[in-house]
Amino acid sequence: MEKKFPRYLSAPFQILWFEPDELGVMCLFFVLALMFGYVFWALVFAAPYGYSVLKRKYPRGFFKHMLYFAGLTNLSGYPSFFEGRFLE
């Protein structure tokens, strides 16, 4: 049984030159453009570019932590934010 091993372990998964989170932002604005039109067509490519510029300023995992602090998602395998002590 053969399994393919990634060539570069630290390289992120990409579709063309977009990473999956940037592609998700693009798809969101594409759906909004199909529904409402107008300025959303310009944002189909402008929003992922702005997101990628913002993403480069912060360390990896920034977006997931921001969703956690906003209360929209949970981080599994980690103690809650309000834990006073954590013993491994």
Describe this structure in a few short sentences.
With 88 residues, this protein is an all-alpha fold. The protein has a domain at 21-69.
Overview of this protein structure:
The protein has 88 residues and is mostly helical. The protein has a domain of 49 residues. Helices cover 48% and strands 0% of the residues. It has three helices and no strands. The longest helix is centred in the N-terminal third of the chain and has 17 residues. 2% of the residues are buried. The model has no long low-confidence stretch (mean pLDDT 81).
Q: How many angstroms does the end-to-end distance come to?
A: 36 Å
- Please work out how many helical segments DSSP would assign: 3
Reading the helices and strands in chain order gives: HHH
Q: Rg, please?
A: 18 Å
User: Given the helix and strand composition, which structural class is it?
Assistant: mainly alpha
Strand residues, percent: under 5%
Mean pLDDT: 81
Query: Which word captures the global form?
Result: extended
Helix content: 40-55%
User: How many strand segments?
Assistant: 0
Sequence stretches where pLDDT stays below 50 over 5 or more residues: none
Largest sheet: none
Defining key terms:
mainly alpha; single chain; 3 helices; 88 residues
Helix and strand topology:
Layout: H1 20-36, H2 40-56, H3 62-69
